[in-house]
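Researcher: Re-running this chain for the archive, since the previous output was lost when a drive failed. Same request as before.
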Amino acid sequence: MIELSDPVPTHPPRSQWWDVWVQFKSHKGALIGAFVFLFIVLAVFIGPMIWWVDAQHLPSGRDFIKLRDTRPIYTVLWESDAKTNWWHPLGTDNLGRDILARLLSGGRVSIAVGLTAMVLSILIGTLVGVLAGYVKRLDGPLMRLTDLFLALPLLPLILVASLLFREALSATFGVEGGVFVLVVALIGVTSWMQTARIVRGDVLALKEREFILAARSIGTTPRKLVARHLLPNVLSPIMVSATLGIAIAIITESALSFLGFGFPPDFPTWGRLLNDSVDRMDLYPERVVWPGLMISLTVLSVNYMGDGLRDALDPRIRGR
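Model: Regenerated structure tokens:
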């Protein structure tokens, strides 16, 4: 007689986050995007500690004549008479400032703005979405407010607000600090609407599920119900919105700096470097290529990461 017995598990069950990582690794574009974005972040934050050249240093006297408008060192491959300097591998601008140092310093500002504005946008969007989806009497007013923000021309609104509040914030936080607070606040306040609509839709679907009704029947307070049951289940769209929000914030900051409404001229960002290079683009096209390439690579890598996270956090796709 054969006795049947339940098999004894030899390994602990895998966590859900391990399954998410396995699915994320299977998305080649997302994995490459994550490595590219991590490399750019490490380069702009650790690079200035290794590359000792000051991004805002202005040479004077004979050094100014010798260092201004030098070409990248690779231009000697097709221009034997190009004015190059081996201490400045990407060349210098018309004021003799090192372009590589300004790229690294500008990337640190642009990515810091993108990450901070993304956090502010996600916090506002999640709060509005949860309140609109869970509290029925707030649904109408909050969604009409969201529709109002979606209908506004955001870029002209940001430009006008930048002119109105720049001086007051600069007097309080300093020139660079005031502009940083202003740009982050403007981008965060004008980019939360998509997150709010997505979170509201998920909360409306979740609050009628059986586990929510069971938690409510045993007397769970609304605050604990939202914190323990609703928010963990809407984490997937929030994380996807967060990755895409970084790209939107970086593009918006670059557009503001390119139009001259962002950081001051002596404070480099990728958008400011593009703005400074446009007038001399015919003579020095590489000065436009490098900041534009950095913006494009960062935005593209973040978008691929968002696609991979969307697939990895979807249990229907993860179970395939």
